[in-house]
Structure formats: C-alpha cells, structure tokens
Design brief:
Layout lengths: L1 H8 L3 H17 L3 H15 L3 H22 L14 H16 L3 H11 L8 H13 L3 H12 L1
Helix pairs in contact: 1-2, 2-3, 3-4, 5-8, 6-7, 7-8
C-alpha cells in the first residue's frame, strides 16, 4: 500500500497499475471480491492512463484493503525468532557478510540474510540488519556497502 501511494504521488502509472494488479489478484485469492473488483477497475483506469478516475477511487480501495488486511491478520502466523545473536558474534557475522557484499555475491548474501533473519540482533544492530535486508531486496550494493562503512567510521 505504501508503494502504491508513492507510485501515485510520483505519477508512475505504469508501475502503479502493476501493483494494483497484484492487489486485485491477491484479493481474489482470499475471497475479497469487492476489493478485487475495485482494484480491477483501478487497473483498467491505469491501463487507460485515467489518472482522474484513479485519484477519485483510490481512497476507497485503500480503505477496503486496510479492513481486509485487518480481518485476515489473526489468520497469519507470526514467525517467532529462534533467539538473539550474542553481541560478541555480531561483528564477525557482519564482517563475513561484508565480504560477500564486496564480492557482489548475491547468492551468498541472500542465503546469509535469510539464515540470520531467524534471529534477533542486539540493540542498534537489529536496525542495521533490517536496513541490509531492504538494500539487498532492492539490489542496492552501494547502500549495503555504506551500512558497513558507517560501522568502521
């Protein structure tokens, strides 16, 4: 939803329409037929570059999406972490991960991030790990490297 809003603000109707298509399909899969239909109408408007229609009707879709997500949230199992990584091991893990980042070894970085995601990090290291995951998802190697450079500075 955050991305949909950003794309609309940026007037990126092509990518907005792709995200709306995903909402339409997902809503249909979970039986949220009204949400799916509103998203389908917005998708069609996006295909036709009808920004006026989109701006008039996006609020209804966002509201219904929020209601639907809220009603489904009890059904979504929250993954529990397996524990917290000892602070004495964090530096070594990040040094290892940094090596993979510097080598632009996407497979190794992804594998290590997925494995470490089962654990909590102490203090501010959790925030840094979360930023690393986001940068990896965006394949932003510069941002990943910068997160390591902040530590050494």
């Amino acid at each position: 939803i955050h991305e949909i809003r950003e794309l609309l603000v940026a007037n990126d109707i092509e990518n907005f329409t792709m995200k709306i298509h995903a909402v339409k399909s997902s809503a249909k899969l979970v039986g949220a037929d009204r949400l799916s239909q509103i998203a389908a109408d917005l998708e069609q408007a996006g295909d036709q570059k009808n920004v006026e229609y989109i701006r008039r009707h996006i609020g209804m879709m966002l509201s219904l999406y929020g209601e639907t997500a809220g009603s489904l949230s009890p059904l979504v199992k929250k993954e529990e972490k397996e524990g917290t990584i000892d602070s004495e091991h964090v530096a070594g893990l990040f040094a290892h991960l940094r090596g993979y980042v510097e080598d632009c070894n996407s497979e190794a970085v992804g594998s290590m991030l997925r494995a470490l995601d089962h654990y909590n990090f102490p203090g501010k290291e959790q925030e840094r790990f979360d930023k690393l995951k986001k940068a990896y998802e965006a394949m932003d190697w510069v941002a990943m490297t910068a997160l390591f450079d902040e530590d050494s500075g």
